[in-house]
Design a protein that fits this description.
Number of strands: 18
CATH class of the largest domain: Alpha Beta
Number of helices: 13
Radius of gyration: 22 Å
Largest sheet: 10 strands, mixed
Helix content: 25-40%
CATH topology of the largest domain: TIM Barrel
Distance between the termini: 36 Å
CATH superfamily of the largest domain: Metal-dependent hydrolases
Shape: globular
Length: 451
């Protein structure tokens, strides 16, 4: 660049970043907290969490804090409150269809609702790349975003949703949403997807098992994760798991392991779902254990999306109950088998709702699916981070990890709905006090959260 190029251009000042991560050297001590660290361990009372800029510096008993620990540090006394990792929603679609104003408002609600990271499970990644950048550098208040680029068989791309997220181009031909068949140059296709900024390939529909395995192998070779529906038809659950994908979404699709029918295309699965669930329920309890053991051995994570079946007509009228019964048994067997379960939603609550949809999913996992609250907290924290491939940097309250935290006024291990009683969300060291949330304003209407 020339000297002239290096000079600032009038009128091109950078956008303000009122929600930027805390700066290194900006030390905050959260004192006398009841700590839920995200690992599934019991509550530890009388703890202190020290953050330095965007990261956690130390987690120690409050009584062991030294004068040097407190020198030049901001002290936040949260005695009686519970501090845990920021929550993670592992199944979102904020860009289907793309709507920038709506997405910003939902992201704002998520961060003030305790959600510090999401998996964007395909959509218009042109919009999501910009939203993710804006949230990361603090132009807007919102969670960190890990996005997936979608791959599916050519027959899928007459779906109207694919046109919504490919506006200006042809669905199936864009890097974030590609039609794949046996002739596809997979190294190039994966490289194109990676170039969108996506962290993963989402394997969606109308692919056979051999092609799912080839996509997975190439994505892993190029350093990307693979997130798949639990059955993508004609590939069945066992084939999807055997392909080596990292996460399977929509646990109800695992019922097709017993279906006795193989829908030739993804759209054909709904008419058979109720029967597949009945076959699952009629089978011996341990009949699914071989599949679950394979998942545990491979480290395959289940993104359950358990509550979505009550909101989207996935089966004929009157069949929701049998799907719920199937899910309840499957989740119980998966827990006992040691398979990791994370918490994803696949929907958002209406704009007027004060909390994001993840809280409804967590309530559903406890009160309908029968998971203990302690396990559900882990599903929404450390297991969610693992589903994103980010467990080294987030998901638990440990020194060296990102200072992504949520403070609530009551114990969620006693009642999972206590997670709605949010005092403060901390993302990368920056506090977002719940009292500052008005539920309507966009970022440009706000002065910024307190540091």
């Amino acid at each position: 660049m020339s000297d002239r190029d290096e000079q600032p251009v009038a009128g091109n000042d950078p956008a303000p970043t009122p929600f930027a991560a805390a700066a290194q050297g900006q030390v905050t001590v959260y004192r006398d907290v009841s700590l839920i660290d995200g690992t599934g361990a019991p509550v530890r009372r009388g703890m202190a969490v020290v953050t330095d800029g965007p990261t956690i510096k130390a987690v120690v008993p409050d009584a062991e804090l030294t004068r040097s620990d407190l020198s030049d540090a901001e002290t936040v006394d949260v005695a009686g409150a519970f501090l845990l990792p920021g929550l993670i929603d592992t199944h979102q679609h904020l860009s289907t269809p793309p709507n920038r104003d709506q997405a910003e408002k939902l992201m704002r609600r998520q961060i003030y609702g305790g959600v510090t990271a999401i998996r964007e499970m395909a959509g218009d990644l042109r919009q999501m790349a910009d939203l993710g950048r804006a949230a990361l550098i603090g132009e807007i208040a919102g969670p960190d975003i890990c996005s997936a680029a979608l791959m599916a068989g050519p027959s899928f791309f007459d779906d109207p949703r694919t046109w919504q997220v490919s506006q200006g181009a042809t669905p199936g031909t864009v890097p974030w949403m590609q039609a794949i068949d046996e002739k596809t140059d997979l190294p190039l296709a994966v490289a194109m997807a990676r170039g969108t900024g996506a962290a993963a390939i989402k394997v969606y529909a109308d692919l056979d098992g051999s092609l799912v395995a080839r996509i997975t192998a190439e994505a892993h070779r190029q350093g990307m994760q693979v997130w798949a529906h639990a059955a993508v038809f004609p590939a069945m659950p066992g084939e999807v798991v055997a392909a080596g994908v990292d996460v399977v979404s929509h646990a109800h699709l695992l019922a097709y392991h017993f279906a006795g029918v193989q829908p030739p295309a993804y759209r054909g699965q709904r008419e058979h779902l109720a029967d597949a669930c009945r076959r699952f329920l009629d089978a011996p309890d341990d009949a699914v254990d071989a599949l679950l053991d394979d998942m545990r051995r491979r480290g395959t994570i289940i993104d359950a999306t358990a509550s979505v079946v009550t909101r989207i007509p996935l089966a004929p009228p009157g069949a929701v109950e049998v799907v719920q019964d199937m899910l309840r048994r499957l989740i119980d067997r998966a827990r006992r088998a040691g398979v990791t379960i994370c918490a994803g939603t696949d929907y958002e609550t209406p704009p007027g709702d004060p909390h994001p949809s993840l809280h409804d999913e967590l309530h559903h996992l406890v009160h309908v699916m029968g998971m203990p609250p302690q396990e559900v907290v882990r599903a929404a924290t450390l297991s969610g981070a693992a589903a994103m491939g980010q467990e080294a940097t987030m998901g638990s309250v440990e020194a060296g990890k990102l200072a992504n935290l949520v403070i609530v006024s009551a114990d969620p291990h006693e009642d999972i709905d206590h997670l709605r009683r949010i005092v403060t969300t901390v993302k990368r060291g920056r506090r977002h006090d719940r009292a500052d949330y008005d539920g309507t304003a966009t970022e440009t209407d706000k002065e910024g959260a307190r540091g």
